[in-house]
Amino acid sequence: MSTTTPIPDARLDETFAALANSTRRAILARLASGEANVNELAEPFDMTLPAISKHLKVLERAGLIVRSRRAQYRPCALDAGPLAEVAGWAEQYRPVWEARFDRMDDYLARLNPPRTTRPPHPDPPTKDKPPR
């Protein structure tokens, strides 16, 4: 199916596991617009900073974020590399799902053949009736 270098299963598993949580996906969405520190990332969530830090560790272990250190400021940034790997992995299945969509389109077309449209009937002529 694909001629690209296979991605190790363990790396894909770790990436998918990190993406399986809505909080982590929201953090990645936020980081897509630029780097942020832990406090900024925690702001929209009703969670403690240690809980957010645990989510960040999962993302970091999966390679989805990188943390740097600038004095006491530790910004997090998105690393899209693993996302590109997931996209590449999923791409090999494109012919499968496109073929299924094509078959579904054919099936739906058979279920609901196009109707021929008739021109609208003109209103019959009306005669003005005198008021009573």
Strand content: under 5%
Biggest sheet features:
2 strands, antiparallel
CATH architecture of one domain: Orthogonal Bundle
The named CATH superfamily of one domain = Winged helix-like DNA-binding domain superfamily/Winged helix DNA-binding domain
- Please trace the helix and strand order, writing H or E for each element: HHHHEEHH
The CATH topology annotation of one domain reads as Arc Repressor Mutant, subunit A
Structure write-up:
With 132 residues, this protein is mainly α. It has a domain at 9-86: Orthogonal Bundle (Arc Repressor Mutant, subunit A), CATH 1.10.10.10. Helices cover 52% and strands 5% of the residues. Strands 1-2 form a two-stranded antiparallel ribbon. A hairpin with an 8-residue loop joins strand 1 (65-67) and strand 2 (76-78). Helix 1 (9-19) runs antiparallel to helix 4. The protein is elongated and about 95 Å long. It starts with 8 loop residues before the first helix and ends in a 21-residue tail after the last helix. The model has no long low-confidence stretch (mean pLDDT 86).
Describe the structure using short key phrases.
132 residues; mainly alpha; Arc Repressor Mutant, subunit A; 2 strands; 52% helix; elongated
